[in-house]
Amino acid sequence: MKYRKIKTVCIMLMGGMLSLLSACTPFTLEQETGSEPEIILRYAEVNPSDHIITMTGKYFADQVKELSNGRIEIEVYDAGKLGNDAQYYEQLQVGALDMYRGNAIALESISDMEVGIMAMPYLFRNTEHFWKVCDGEIGDEVLEDLQKSGSHMVGLCFLDEGARNIMTVKKPIRSIEDLQGLKIRSMEDDLLCDVLRSTGAEPVVMDYADVYSALQSGAVDGAENPVCSYYSNKFYQVAPYYTIDAHTHSPSVILISEITWKYLSEEDRQILQVAAQRAKKYNKDAIENAEAEAYRKLADENVTIIKLEDKSEWQEAMEGIYKSYGGSNYELIEKIRNVK
Fold it and tell me: What pLDDT is attached to residue 51?
């Protein structure tokens, strides 16, 4: 009896930029070899191994292995070992990567997907509101739309990596005026860049792997990240001021390449879906403790933490963002806002 091991084979052409040929098959056949898994999937993550979102990915992999009795193995590659955020989406779309934990901010720029709306600034009132949306009918609709939109990706579940806040090198940010003219690192995303511009800051696009050195050298004055990422990546060592403005609380999504997905049996798809729901529960239970622990450790590192009590001027500055990016999805924005 022969067993399947998923292994992506893609043909690439050079011509100023890399393009990939239309067909990539994720299968090779191998003879049965003892206790080896039948299917191996590669799962990428940009964060380090001790980050809560990476730990969630590893928990997901453990659940898949348990539910499949070892038939399916997911190899988690953390800390950007297989590329960067933008490259991972490209790899998913052509089947060169099986799985990735993406974020609604980056997904917003890939195609016209409803998930991008969930990255809008100050959309969620708090974590309870965030999960009522993600766990409800709206969340189901958004995940379904992710595949229907033609993204060539399938969303298995939402995860929470925390609200994104501002970190700075030389001075604390206590009001929106304090950001005027500061160079703030951004991922390669038009929405996030425009959110930063709306505060008066100057967005500087760069790879995540370069953020620490850019903060250290003064190439940028600050960046923005959830607190768990701020702590686990040790950004506090070079940017010791952290302002809790929660400008966006965009959900993450466990993604699988549509090319990989269509070759899986219904039984194996069900295993991944059940494992994803377990991983979501793990994430929901763990993120609150992880954030609290990060804040405790940051206090020990003498980080200056500022929590904005009044965000009205920040929210008002985002009116243009909603006009520019709301578009035909403005009804969805209102539905999210109206969830109680």
Answer: 92
Give the distance, in angstroms, between the CA of residue 43 and the centroid of all CA atoms in the same chain: 13
- C-alpha to C-alpha distance for 119 and 124, rounded to whole angstroms: 9
- At residue 166, the 3 state secondary structure works out as strand
Token pair 């991922």: residue: 187
Q: Please give the model's pTM, rounded to 2 decimal places.
A: 0.85
The residue among 38, 49, 95, 117 whose CA lies nearest residue 255 is 95
- The pLDDT-based confidence of 326 (bands split at 50, 70, 90) is confident
Q: What pLDDT digit, counting tens, does each position of 254-286 carry?
A: 999 999 999 999 999 999 999 999 999 999 999
Tell me the two tokens of residue 176.
């929106």
Query: What CA–CA distance (Å, rounded) separates 304 from 72?
Result: 45
Structural domains in the chain, sorted by start: 2-160+251-289 (3.40.190.170), 164-249+294-337 (3.40.190.170)
Distance CA 58, CA 190 (A): 31
